[in-house]
Amino acid sequence: MKWPTNKTYFYCQKHDFSIWQQQVHAHAELYTARDEQTWLLFDIDSYQFSVLFFALLAAKKSIVLPQNGQPEQLAQCLVQAEAFTGVADNTCADVAFNKYIRVENMVNTAIEVDVNAAIRFFTSGSSGQPKAIDKTFSQLLFEVKELEQQFAEQMQQAMMVATVSHQHIYGLLFKVLWPLYSGRDVCFSSFDYPEHLLHFINQQSDAHDFVVISSPAYYHRLVQDNVLVAIKHKIHCLFSSGGPLKPAAAMQLASQLGNAPIEVLGSTETGGIAWRNQSTHSHWRAFSAIKLKLDELQRLIISSPYVDNGQWYQTDDCVQLLTNNQFNLLGRADRIVKIEEKRCSLDEISLRANQSDWVIDSYVFLLQHHESDGKRDEIAAVLVLTEQGEQALEQLGKFKFSQALKTHLKAFFEPLVIPRKYRYLNELPYNSQGKLNKAQLEKLFD
After folding, report:
1. pLDDT in tens, 47-97
2. Separation of alpha carbons 437 and 446, rounded Å
3. What pLDDT is recorded for position 433?
4. The pTM is what?
5. Between residues 196 and 129, the one the model is more confident about
6. How many whole angstroms separate alpha carbon 120 and alpha carbon 135?
7. CATH code for the domain defined by 17-286
8. Of 30, 171, 137, whose CA–CA distance to 93 is shortest?
9. Alpha carbon of 25 to those of 35, 243, 357: distances in Å?
10. Does the 340-445 domain belong in CATH 3.30.300.30?
């Protein structure tokens, strides 16, 4: 297929679409001249990444995308590729981005893309080793078209800016493929801190509105000192993915910026499943291409064009199905545990803890003790406190404070499943993709 010729403008490089096209064609010639079929691609620069990504597709190559550029991560993923392209420390590129090369007479020439090209992502596996997830470009394109169909009216032609990495499927879809497909202007610079984003938006013309693409971890930090309030009239809408946004944070963002983020539920394996905006509804709505059903344990099963050609796929999410395309999320199936034969949801305990005026965020998990007379399980909680909670902790002391928290939780749970041990942090250790470092939290109880 020919890649759409809508005229995206790249604010990070001050390039228009025709320059980008020429650079894609030029790099495609370099790949075509090479015998290697499968290429590992990593480049922290989103613009350079986009050129190399489409050049590989145009050259009919397969692509392997590591989660990050750490040496061990690249070494593990390079085993599954024949050559490396991009920029990374300690890894020499067989083909690197070259901003000077062009192809003569290629101005405004559409890019012929291999829609069947294989793209391999990596996500955190249960074994601790990266887990490979295979997609085709046509599956990614289908999802981009679905996003455009669902949200184009809300976004209009606003410029897209992001805080997430293009190496992961969320960032690749929202930060790279969607603006290119729709012809929206995009800034490929990274905005690790809200102050950086504020500075960039203030530099742009008042004619621009902006769409912000970020993660729950970023938004949870933002609400505590929201510097974007000063430019809220320029922010057209926000997107979030990587995990559910806590209701209190969503409502606070709605109050501060005029609207809560549009949350997208999904994973590398499934692609986008459903969306919600907590300004208007707390339940999830499946995208039009997704069909839903449940198994006997209330685990969600989906039929999706992004997974196994529409075959039914069982997720690890437990849900309450409201209609044939709407549901409430109850938590992860692997977060359902038994304490002395009592089943409980660790996610539900965390949700109820967060409803306390003292708690803004929490992680609840099963703490296992191996003793001489056998194994003993109990539930532990790591809490991030509100300002009111910090004052109460200081006034009451840890013992009385934890007893008061237990009293709050007894309104919802039997005493047996209420957390017995507590630790307190200023914030939970989320990474840039919104993933929680659970091992780090569990070490707090060693």
Report:
1. 999 999 999 999 999 999 998 888 878 888 899 999 999 998 878 899 999
2. 16
3. 59
4. 0.82
5. 196
6. 6
7. 3.40.50.12780
8. 30
9. 18, 37, 57
10. yes
